[in-house]
Amino acid sequence: MLLSHPEKPLFNHLQNVYLIGDCILKQKKTRFKNFSEDAVRQLNMLNLLTHDLGKATSYFQEYIRDVDISPLKNDEKKRHGLLSGVLTFKIVRKVMEDECLAFLSYMVVSKHHGELDDFKNFISVLSGDEKNINLLMKQFESIDKDKLNEVIKGLGIDFDISNYTANEFKEDINYLISRKVKKKVKKLLGFETFLLVDYLFSLLIFSDKLEAIYSSENMSIEGFIEKTIKRPKLSSDCVEKYKESLEIKNIQMANWRERAYKDVLRSVENLSLEEKILSINLPTGSGKTLTALKSALRLKERLIEEKGYNPRIIYVLPFTSIIEQNFDVFQKVLGTTESNVLLKHHYLSERVYKWEREGEKEIYSDAVSEHLVESWDSEIVVSTFVQLLHSIFTNRNRKLKKFHNIVNSIIILDEVQSIPHRYWNLVRETFIAMAKYLNCYFIFMTATMPLIFSEENKEIYELARDKRKYFAEFDRITIDAGRVSEKMTMDQYKEMLLEDIYRYEKNDFLIVMNTIRTSIEIYSFIKDEFEDEAEIYYLSTNIIPKERLRRIKNIKKSKNRKIIISTQMIEAGVDIDIDRVYRDFGPMDSINQTAGRCNREWGGKKGVVTLVNLVNEDHYDRPFAGYIYDNVLMEETKNALSGLERIEEKEIFSLAEKYYKGLKDHGSDESQKLLDCIKELGYREAFEYKKEDKNSQVFELIRQEFKTVDVFVEIDDDAAKVWQEYQKIKKMKDRFERKRKLNQHKKDLYMYVLSLPEFAVKKQVDIDEKDITFINSEMVFNTYDKDTGFMRDTEKDYFF
Questions:
Q1: What is the arithmetic mean of pLDDT over 486-506?
Q2: I need a surface site. Which of 485, 546, 765, 785 has the fewest CB within 10 A?
């Protein structure tokens, strides 16, 4: 008997993988133009049934019977990916009579244990290296064909391998890499093929991994299939019920939010389901989160009723720091903690999957939980932009295993202005293709809508039909931009702040700086002057997350006068409401985000946001904004604000439009290069960073301009216990248990971890190149200030 895993028949594994992957595909509706629905289903079926045929070699069979001590453990002859891929090519070509589809299957199957490669490399691996051909021939000749034929026949595949000779196999390899096949496949390349390959790859790797995990845990595959077919039903009415339970703090704001909410819902009810790229463009504080959730749930109901498929909802935000608050709201709205209904996923989230079956609550094992969480196997997923976009623009196996759950989904992108301008065109073309071929719906949500899509050209449909009216009605703040055209030194700024804080003695203040250095300088100054008259808070990524969260919680709770000094991290959805905001100059969307913290709840008096243009006297009056932001963003912001001294809230909408129009005119070479790679199936070229090529521009949503290192700060006894536990886990011999424990411990660990520029850290402590750098309790005094965080050595170190 041929085995696929220790003590598991190859036949059983292939059949189970097929049952899982086919069941998932049957729940989906795609609209590929060059590939019929029947062709996609048959292609998927053959991939699933044949993906491990290469395990039939005598080398693999000898290895799998004694995994731990087999002499073949590190021998390339036991590998099965490439051989399986070539055999799949042969079978698909025979069964479907299509070389192009057969080649796509060869790509998917040959890399199902690795990362997707460039199209050209799938040919060169068989044409440029005689070693690979010789290995394949040796492997093929070692197959027990009678046993493998029994497996193939049992799976219902119309292919007799018992009469398939080594010469024929060699001829098929030569045909696979022939000019004829290459020419045919190249004609088929493009966005549609890119999305199909990702979809088929995702279905295979998810099903393969799930089958292996379920089998090792003695869990029933039928249970997963039942769960996939009988998905929980969600009613959009749950949002109304939750809203009724909320306390109304400001009747004017509550009425306004309700109007906007109903306006958006009317649009969803009347929406043509061919409109798949949508937006909710409303001012800050207008209740967009609940409005978007209700809209997505209602759209989900309509698609079930009218189109016959059940989309998942994916809600993404720019930062992990704001996921928790939105996830908590969704839990309350849905009234459940079951993971198959609502799931949270980011790099620090716990990998626990729990659900209720026939009245009994069940928590899955760590291996199953991790697989299902990382694959987004839930009705509603709350995650980050990084997780979403790096699961679309990727060649990585681990990232692509969730792609099939992105297919047919409703994707809400909250604070969509966070997508860098350099990727606008990439996102635009990709989302259009995903809407067209994968039946994905997108809801872009923000107070300042970037021109990724043009409403004017009907590329995007606005659900808040009266949005201009809503923006015109808001009168919560005035932006004082009169000082933007003048350079201001830090000493001048301190004088201005001193005067204003004394003058407006009953107001809370938020002072937002562009660099760590300037934020600490202003904090120290304010603390010396006003510590006895107000609560002084410092917020930045220079202090450990545990302390940041504690301070934000205290800011929200406190009824006393507050003065908050922060870097731009305050823009990341930190839900506070302040009377007066001061901000060093930055891009338009950053200014708007900071302004959203001012008079958010429309209190009695109008809030004021004051902009200044701070310069570094020690560096030829260079603006501090220049150390942080792109010149293009700064120039377009200056153009948008040109000639304006006082800006009312109702004018922000048109200013943002002007700013984004200016940005759009700049275009992006980076987007175009990535689009060209994607259309040519250049997976590695587009998505895999190459150290040897410094000009390589792979997709990277959050670009690090300098190398960073993770630093653990043993600031107190709790931190010491967390670090000790981490050391204990690292010493575990069982790698699966070690990984499980690390996943459980990661959230606690990273509460004390800072991500800092390497050049700043190495001046203070010895960097651990292989692990998190550790600052012990004795070193803390000289390296970490309890108020302002990590101590930098030189001026340069404080800019970032």
A1: 96
A2: 485
